[in-house]
Amino acid sequence: xxxxxxxxxxxxxxxxxxxxxxxxxxxxxxxxxxxxxxxxxxxxxxxxxxxxxxxxxxxxxxxxxxxxxxxxxxxxxxxxxxxxxxxxxxxxxxxxxxxxxxxxxxxxxxxxxxxxxxxxxxxxxxxxxxxxxxxxxxxxxxxxxxxxxxxxxxxxxxxxxxxxxxxxxxxxxxxxxxxxxxxxxxxxxxxxxxxxxxxxxxxxxxxxxxxxxxxxxxxxxxxxxxxxxxxxxxxxxxxxxxxxxxxxxxxxxxxxxxxxxxxxxxxxxxxxxxxxxxxxxxxxxxxxxxxxxxxxxxxxxxxxxxxxxxxxxxxxxxxxxxxxxxxxxxxxxxxxxxx
Length: 339
Prior knowledge:
There is one protein chain. This protein has about 350 residues and is mainly β. The chain has helices at about 1-10, 170-175, 335-339; strands at about 15-25, 30-40, 45-55, 75-80, 85-90, 95-100, 105-110, 115-120, 130-135, 140, 160-165, 175-180, 190-195, 195-200, 230, 240-260, 270-275, 280-285, 290-310, 320-330. It has two domains: about 1-175, no CATH class; about 195-339, Sandwich (Jelly Rolls), CATH 2.60.120.260. It has three helices and 20 strands. Strands 12, 14, 15, 16, 17, 18, 19 and 20 form an eight-stranded antiparallel β-sheet that branches. A five-stranded antiparallel β-sheet has the order 6-11-8-9-13, with no helix packed on it. The longest helix has 11 residues, at about 1-10. It is globular.
């Protein structure tokens, strides 16, 4: 039954599946990841590509002189066959300059030596960077064709590209900030949070994908190509949008930017926010191009969902979400474990 289910899924969407091979030392009570594989489905030709990325460093190999931790970061640019085209290494930060044009099928990998990590990540100089929470390696598929039009026109183009990543500081992780923004988000099981998904995206087009609602761009006076990408619901009455944080966070404010390409657009006069703690709240909205704040007492969350979206009585059938922001702080790991 599992194989049958997998085949059904492969026919409907592009997916990436990650596999880890783990060694556990009983005496030392240490676990290390030996190898990392991922399977990527190419919906254009129907093939499944299998990649073995590299050997992970274990706990001992991360120890530097004097027993201090040495945190390793690696950028890799790979082609469709799994061949490494460019690579760069660093300890707490790493940059990579790629001096050739990308080809369709190329992808980017960011490796790190931790089970999970907070990192500032920039996959292209045109996108800027986001503070993200990684639960594995970042595997970023370079967009081409229709998938590219929701990105800045110069992104991933030409023969000069700059990638950068660094570990976030404790102060950056702890600060009150927008926990929803991630310019590096993509479809699939990315292991890179925050991560946006939805039960519908208009015609499956990139300019209406859920990821657009967390790309940090609040321009909402038109629709379609960048910078006007949004989450489109294809007129579905049961449309819902899910935002996953990948760990526990503490939030107390949401800001909603509805798309405001009036009179082409309609707007939602009401929506329900469902939280991971099994509570929910009904929110009334108004017709505006400005961000609308929704405040509530501090909540511990791992995800939230926008659902029961009720549009106004205006004739247009096209409400859409340009951006969602969620403000709060990370819950420190030691505090989560203590509770």
